[in-house]
Amino acid sequence: MYLVSAGQLSSLYQISTVVIVAKALHYGASPLMPVEILHLEVEPRGEGWYRILVDGKRVKYLSIDGGIYDDDDMCFPPVLVDKLPPLPPGDWNVGHIGKSGDSEDPQFVKTEKKILNGVCQLWHPTTIDVLSLRQEKRIMSNVLVVTSDHFELPVIAKFARFEVEIPYYDHETEAYRWLQQQPGDSIGPRFLGHLAEEGRIIGFLLEKIEGHHAEPEDLSSCQDVLSKLHGVGILHGDVNKHKFLVSDSRTVLIDFECSSRTNDTDAKRRELASLPDELSSVSGKGGTVEYPPDMYEEMDIIYERDGGWSDELLRQALKGQITMTSEENKAMLRKQRGESP
To answer: Which of 9, 61, 86, 309 has the fewest CB atoms inside 10 Å of its own CB, making it the most exposed?
Structure first.
């Protein structure tokens, strides 16, 4: 089983964020408090984590014990928000919902004002409040096309949803500083500034490049830009078709959270040699693959039955008809994983 995120749910439920008026608050608080679930991460039959916006201006983080609500309710904001206990008053930003004492009703068992970790690699002169951005399109749950008064054209916002993700964005912010120091043709999108949430840095803004993710016919241009990256002493660390953006004028690399500075020529050679297979893969690695809606149930059954999906099965699913037998799928999975027949 896998963690379920709001980004994954959007393809199934066609949701992004949900705004609902929460229950009247106790202790003299306002009876109408708009609560917006911005992001969620739920462990099946386990704990859930939520990033919410209250009154359109205050970000808070909630965790909910497993078993408090049904799994489906934990993953579906329109239902969950209406079932939350009243939000406690006070200046808090982290809260936990569970059960306390003899009561069977969910309640806030803890709230605190916590100093949350933020990105430390601050090198760009521009910092913009994340709540000032206007969303135009959701690419992933943490990657958005946005507009801002600071820019004439739409830009890309990429940010940590939860504190545990901060180290990845700290490292990627530093990687863009490495690239900024390189003269000549750009290897990645232009870094446009840092993103702040209530004072701490949680992400960054990038130039929006009109283009498509790489396909096998883009191999030559992808090899060129990856070779440039290697030439300045950087290993990407997570090369796949979704890490390249190909436009009419250029090809760039994106997503540098796994990158490293290195002089390891063998590692660079292996990364470059992996490109043909990566560009022809239909696994969805590094991005998303949209299957016909009527395939979801069958895909779930096959995954539970066979322990995964082979590349050939995924190709068939994309076309809307799976003809592989279970034994054929299992055999191809063993081959892909390097296991004995």
So the answer is: 86
pLDDT digit string, tens, across residues 216-258: 999 999 999 999 999 999 999 999 999 999 999 899 999 999 9
Output b/e per residue, 258-267; b: 16+ Cβ within 10 A: ebeeeeeeee
- Quick check: 334 pLDDT over 70? yes
In 3D space, the residue among 157, 160, 130, 159 whose CA is nearest the CA of residue 144 turns out to be: 157
Confidence label for 8 from pLDDT (cuts 50, 70 and 90) = very low
Sequential DSSP letters for 3-58: -EEHHHHHHHH--S-EEEEPPPPSTT--S--EEEEEEEEE-TTS-EEEEEEETTTE
d(CA 269, CA 37): 44
Please report, as a single letter, which amino acid is at residue 62: L
Give the whole-angstrom CA distance, residue 247 versus residue 212.
Answer: 7
Confidence at residue 204, expressed as pLDDT on a 0 to 100 scale: 98
Check if the beta carbon of residue 330 is closer than 8 Å to that of residue 307.
Answer: yes
* Triad 270, 276, 282: Cα angle to 5°: 115
Q: Dihedral sign, CA of 198, 204, 209, 212?
A: negative
The residue among 276, 241, 260, 77 whose CA lies nearest residue 178 is 260
C-alpha distances in angstroms, 91 versus 52, 112, 202?
A: 15, 8, 21
128, 193 Cβ separation under 8 angstroms: yes
What does the alpha-carbon distance between residue 204 and residue 127 come to, in Å, rounded to a whole number?
8
What is the residue-wise DSSP string for 53-122? EETTTEEEEEEE-TTSS-HHHHH-HHHHHHHSPPPPPSS-SEEEEE--TT--S-EEEEEE----------
72 contacts 9 by C-beta, under 8 angstroms: no
Can you tell me the distance from the alpha carbon of 193 to that of 16, in angstroms, rounded to the nearest whole number? 25
- Strand, coil or helix: 267: helix
- pTM for the model: 0.76
**171 within 8 A of 160, measured Cβ to Cβ:** no
